[in-house]
């Protein structure tokens, strides 16, 4: 479990060294004028601005502090993106699209009408205004930040996640509708084998400190399901309590970290005997399939 200071003070970004985290946080917040505490996560050279959209979607503006160049993940509401650009005084260079569903890619065309020269990245021809089709392992530069594309088909057949790192910051991963806090996306165009590969062979190989920014605010319901599967998981219990408290105050539960997900996300714990017993399977692909099936029909009490 991550240290308790993160649980009780979640605005502070998760860094491996709590003292460095606090110093960076203080520098980030007090070094600037108009900061919204709960929507801006700082590290030394990357700033991530959370932009809530539609009913429960998140768009993310990734700002390279050195050059003031930025990328936007899934800009479904272009007006909000334009306003955030003005607030932050940045130049938007890239759109990183996770997948073609309208609540993620539906704003691409309008945004491109308003801003010319945008590089619109994605892994699926069905994505509006796509002009840079990317594949697994492709690298993109946003200012001085390095973005690695990770192909994670299953929710859709062209789903991409984006891993972003700078010189000295904690890395971040943008997981769209593949990995959620405490859960994963539905298997609309893929198989349990593919979701297993995405979560447990690809994403899980990145450092545990990596911050996870997902496409929807589904955390409370996901953790309730996690506890239906694993009732005695203390990490899931604590995270649910924390997440409910955040949502009661209308605050986001994003980001988590990959290390945390391994502690409470049942779809990243398919090797755990208690989960295998719950779904009456021991083959990890069968466990993944059975868990998703269970979740598809499960309703919180
Ligand atoms: Zn989707």
From TrEMBL:
<protein>
    <recommendedName>
        <fullName>hydroxyacylglutathione hydrolase</fullName>
        <ecNumber>3.1.2.6</ecNumber>
    </recommendedName>
</protein>
<dbReference type="GO" id="GO:0004416">
    <property type="term" value="F:hydroxyacylglutathione hydrolase activity"/>
</dbReference>
<comment type="pathway">
    <text>Secondary metabolite metabolism; methylglyoxal degradation; (R)-lactate from methylglyoxal: step 2/2.</text>
</comment>
<dbReference type="InterPro" id="IPR017782">
    <property type="entry name" value="Hydroxyacylglutathione_Hdrlase"/>
</dbReference>
<dbReference type="InterPro" id="IPR035680">
    <property type="entry name" value="Clx_II_MBL"/>
</dbReference>
<keyword id="KW-0479">Metal-binding</keyword>
<dbReference type="InterPro" id="IPR001279">
    <property type="entry name" value="Metallo-B-lactamas"/>
</dbReference>
<keyword id="KW-0378">Hydrolase</keyword>
<dbReference type="Pfam" id="PF00753">
    <property type="entry name" value="Lactamase_B"/>
</dbReference>
<dbReference type="GO" id="GO:0046872">
    <property type="term" value="F:metal ion binding"/>
</dbReference>
<dbReference type="GO" id="GO:0019243">
    <property type="term" value="P:methylglyoxal catabolic process to D-lactate via S-lactoyl-glutathione"/>
</dbReference>
<feature type="domain" description="Metallo-beta-lactamase">
    <location>
        <begin position="56"/>
        <end position="216"/>
    </location>
</feature>
<keyword id="KW-0862">Zinc</keyword>
<dbReference type="InterPro" id="IPR036866">
    <property type="entry name" value="RibonucZ/Hydroxyglut_hydro"/>
</dbReference>
<dbReference type="Pfam" id="PF16123">
    <property type="entry name" value="HAGH_C"/>
</dbReference>
<dbReference type="InterPro" id="IPR032282">
    <property type="entry name" value="HAGH_C"/>
</dbReference>
<comment type="similarity">
    <text>Belongs to the metallo-beta-lactamase superfamily. Glyoxalase II family.</text>
</comment>
């Amino acid at each position: 479990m991550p240290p308790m200071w993160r649980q009780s003070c979640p605005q502070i970004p998760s860094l491996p060294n709590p003292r460095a985290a606090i110093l960076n946080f203080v520098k980030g917040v007090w070094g600037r004028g108009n900061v919204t505490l709960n929507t801006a996560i700082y590290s030394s050279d990357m700033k991530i601005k959370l932009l809530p959209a539609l009913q429960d979607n998140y768009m993310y503006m990734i700002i390279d502090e050195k050059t003031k160049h930025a990328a936007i993940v899934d800009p479904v509401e272009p007006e909000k993106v334009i306003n955030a650009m003005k607030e932050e005084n940045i130049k938007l260079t890239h759109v990183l699209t996770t997948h073609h569903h309208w609540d993620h890619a539906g704003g691409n065309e309008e945004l491109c009408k308003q801003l010319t020269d945008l590089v619109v990245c994605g892994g699926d021809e069905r994505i509006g205004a796509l002009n840079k089709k990317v594949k697994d392992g492709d690298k993109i530069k946003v200012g001085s930040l390095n973005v690695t594309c990770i192909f994670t088909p299953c929710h859709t057949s062209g789903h991409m996640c984006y891993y972003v790192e700078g010189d000295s910051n904690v890395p971040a991963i943008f997981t769209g509708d593949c990995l959620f806090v405490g859960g994963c996306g539905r298997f609309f165009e893929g198989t349990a084998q593919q979701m297993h590969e995405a979560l447990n062979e690809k994403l899980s190989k990145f450092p545990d400190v990596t911050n996870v920014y997902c496409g929807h605010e589904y955390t409370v319901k996901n953790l309730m399901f996690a506890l239906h599967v694993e009732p005695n998981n203390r990490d899931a219990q604590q995270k649910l309590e924390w997440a409910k408290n955040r949502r009661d105050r209308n605050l986001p539960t994003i980001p988590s970290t990959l290390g945390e997900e391994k502690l409470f996300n049942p779809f990243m714990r398919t090797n755990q005997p208690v989960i295998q017993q719950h779904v009456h399977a021991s083959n990890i692909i069968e466990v993944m399939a059975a868990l998703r099936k269970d979740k598809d029909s499960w309703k919180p009490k």
